Structure formats: structure tokens, C-alpha cells
Amino acid sequence: MGFYAATVVTEVLGVLWIGIWLFRRFEVRPALFDRRLFRGMLAFGIPMAGYELGAQVLAMGDRYVIQSLLGAQPLGVYVAAYNMCDYVRLLALSSFAAAALPTYSRIWEEQGAEATADFLRRFLHVYVAAASLVVAVTAATGGEVLAVLASAKYREGEVVVPWVIAGMSLEGAVMVCGAGLYLRKRSRLIMLLVAVAAALNIGLNLLWVPAWGITGSAAATLVSYAALLLASMLLGRGTLAVPLPWAAIAKFVPAAALGWWIASHIGFRADALTALRAVRRSCRSSCRWRWPATRCCASGCAAQHRHWLADWVAARTLKDEDHAPAARFRSDVPRHRRRWRSAGWRRSALCGQPAHLRSPPGTRPAMRAGRRQRAGAARRAAQRCRGLHVR
Asked: Which residue windows are transmembrane per the record (predicted)?
């Protein structure tokens, strides 16, 4: 009850503030009332109320199907994931459509159809890039975000996040791709399209939820929004043909899909030690470069500091029990790969370990001594490498 009361109070205060601002800026008199304009506003606005009702059914109708077929627990997981995607849409994607509608309406009235189509083409290019990034990031981090914002038991809702956020990104482009419907104020047709999409969503839920669970419901959401976008674009072409940015779609959508696939197959915490070991091995393999000068710099100086950087990152990012494996990075290389190194080089490599592994928390003199020791070892290694021949 408190939530709804707070919502009502907030809305009333917002309407009062807007009313005060309007009365101060504009002159309001009964003689200025335009009945023709008022009738036109009612003719456009009443069907849009039906549009809002259909949009709510489209967004929430699947929840009743899940409740009746699967139960309360899968419904809670689905609602948590869906609401998270809705928050992302409100923060990252809704502002595009809110800014596009008044802008292209003004361009249509002042500059005509050609300028409006050019603006919408450029707008869609930017929207495709932004929406691809938002969808990829949300799909890749959905499980972690759900575990942090809700709890770990809602993490299984990450399977529906890619479907839902992709559908919401398509819904954000309806007002742009179907600009012809909004420019001609065909609100009745818009309401009918949303109602058909809502009915399609419920029908697909009845078919797919028993077979695929909440994933089927999320897929039904994506298909319904895609159908709404396609129908709006086709029916609006009679007034204004909006060119799709196929070049942007060909660039950004596959890149976003690849990024999401790579990120979803990486366990960030579990693979931290493995990644650091790979960095260390790649640094050691650089010592086999062909050119003596490059080999001298890479093996005598740069590789040493890369090794120290990997140990430093491991000491500060991994848990305490992982410090011991991090300190043994140097010993996991086969002996035949480090046979050519002298005892002096092995001493110089040991000098590259972080301070907490080779001495207690040191003072500034100890740190300066360590730097001098590493610099001397690097110079000696460089001098030995100068006499090597090209292999």
C-alpha cells in the first residue's frame, strides 16, 4: 500500500509542478480554447490509451501463463530477469525514442520527407550501435547483476536475459521505423498492431512455455516485438519509407554477438590464475626471438618487468590461498625451455618477484636496493646477449 501511495503522491506533485510552469509561461483564457484542436487531440489520444493497455498486456501477459503452467518459483526468476532488462531499457534505450519523435516531427513539418528520412537513417545508425552494445553487455553480465541485485537463487534467470533485452531493443525502434504511422497520427492502427502483438505473445507462450520453460516465454517476447517492428515499418512506408542502416547492422550486430559469446564463456574469477600463467608463458616465449638486439631487450629488460607485473597483479587480485601458486609461476616452465639461461639470469628472474614474496614489508632503502639489483641483473643479461649469433 505504501508503494502505491508514494507513486500517487509523486505523480500528483509532478503534474502540479508542470501546471504551475505552464501557467507562468503561457496565457490561459477561456477565449483561447480551440475546440477543433481539442477534438483532434481526443481522436489521437483515446486510441493511444488503448495502445498503452496493449503494451502492458504485451509486457506482462506472459507472467500469468508462467504462473499457471510452471508455478511461482519460475515466475519469480523470470520476473527478476525481466525487470532488470526493463531497468536497462529505461536507462539506456528509452531516451532515444523519446528524443526521436519530437525531432523528426519538427523536421517533417519544416523540411519535408527527404530531410526526415535522412535524419532517421542517421539516427538508426547510432541506435543500432548503442543497442548492440547494451544488448551484448546486459546479456553477458546478466547473471552476475541478478546475483548482486537480487540474490544467487535468481541467477538462473540469466538464460532469459539475452532474449528479453534483444526484444526490448527492437521495441525501442518501433517509433522510428514506423514513423509514418506517427506522422499521420494513425493511432487506431498503432493500437491494433500492439493488440495483435500482445495476442501473439500470449499464444506463443501457451505453445513454448510447456516445452522450454521460461526460455520459451523470453523467446516469445522477442518474436512478438520483432513482429510489431516489422508490421509498423511496412505499414508506415506508405507515408515515409525509413531506410534501414544495413551497413551498421552488418558491423555492430555480429560484433556484439561475438563479444557476448566470448564474455559468456569466460569465468572471470575462476580463470584469473590461468590468464596470468598464460601471460607469463608468453613472456618467456618471447626470449626465442631471432634478432639479438630485440632478444636482448625483450628477455633482459621488458620480459623481466612483465613477469614482475604479472606477480604484482596476482598478489593483489587473487585470494590469499592463490599467492603460493602465483609465486611458483617461474617453476612451471619445462627445463629444456630455460636450459640456455645462466645462473645469473635465474638470479635476475628471481629479483623480479614482488616485495612481499622475497622479504617482509620493506622500507624505502630496501625498495631502492631491489631496484638497483634488478637493474644490474638486466645489464648483465644484456651484455651476455650481445655475443649471441642469429639462429
From this structure: 6-24, 36-59, 122-140, 160-182, 189-208, 214-235, 242-263
What is the Cα–Cα distance from 154 to 79, expressed in whole angstroms? 10
Task: Output the 3-class SS for 67-109.
Answer: HHHCCHHHHHHHHHHHHHHHHHHHHHCHHHHHHHHHHHHHHHH
pLDDT by residue (tens digit) across 75-86?
Answer: 999 999 999 999
Asked if residue 288 and residue 241 are part of one domain, the reply reads: no
Write out the residue range of the structural domain in which residue 342 sits: 272-386
Q: Are 209 and 70 in contact (CB under 8 A)?
A: yes
Distance CA 264, CA 91 (A): 23
Cβ(269)–Cβ(317) under 8 Å? no
How far apart are alpha carbons 297 and 304 in whole angstroms?
A: 10
Q: Are residues 77 and 160 in the same domain?
A: yes
CA atoms within 13 A on the CB side of 311: 22
Total domains in the chain come to: 2
Model confidence, pTM? 0.64
- Residue 55 makes CB contacts below 8 A (sequence gap 6+) with 194, 198
Q: Are residues 255 and 277 in the same domain?
A: no
User: Is 186 part of a structural domain of the chain?
Assistant: yes
